[in-house]
């Protein structure tokens, strides 16, 4: 599995944008985890920076979040282990 999620090329400008708080709640991660992941790229979750600066407004496309979750969905633990090894070895 590729850890990076490509930006949804079919996402339209009218695709629903979620605030950071809502996105964090939806994916059940701390808001700080999302903030750190934006800096490090560790989660590979695409985001939109609406305003410049350290405290600038950030949004997530609903379709990108759903695609990111789908890419992390497995039928058994072994699939997840193999996927993690592939990412580590890449």
Which key phrases capture this entry?
disordered N terminus; 4 helices; single chain; 3-stranded antiparallel beta sheet; mainly alpha
Quick structural summary:
Helix content is 44%, strand content 10%. It has 90 residues and is mostly helical. A 3-stranded antiparallel sheet has the order 1-3-2.
Folded structure, characterized:
With 90 residues, the chain is mainly alpha-helical. It has one domain (17-89). Helices cover 44% and strands 10% of the residues. It has four helices and three strands; from the N terminus they run E-H-H-E-E-H-H. It has helices at 20-27, 31-40, 62-70, 77-89, and strands at residues 17-19, 48-49, 58-61. A three-stranded antiparallel beta sheet has the order 1-3-2. A hairpin with an 8-residue loop joins strand 2 and strand 3. The longest helix is centred in the last third of the chain and has 13 residues, at 77-89. The radius of gyration is 14 Å and the shape is globular. The termini are close together.
């Amino acid at each position: 599995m590729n850890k990076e999620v490509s930006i949804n090329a079919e996402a339209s400008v009218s695709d629903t944008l979620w605030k950071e708080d809502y996105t964090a709640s939806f994916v059940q991660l701390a808001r700080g985890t999302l903030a750190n992941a934006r800096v490090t790229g560790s989660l590979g979750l695409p985001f939109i920076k609406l305003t410049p600066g350290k405290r600038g407004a950030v949004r997530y496309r609903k379709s990108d979040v759903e695609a990111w979750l789908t890419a992390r969905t497995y039928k058994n633990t072994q699939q997840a282990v193999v996927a993690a090894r592939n990412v580590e070895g890449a």
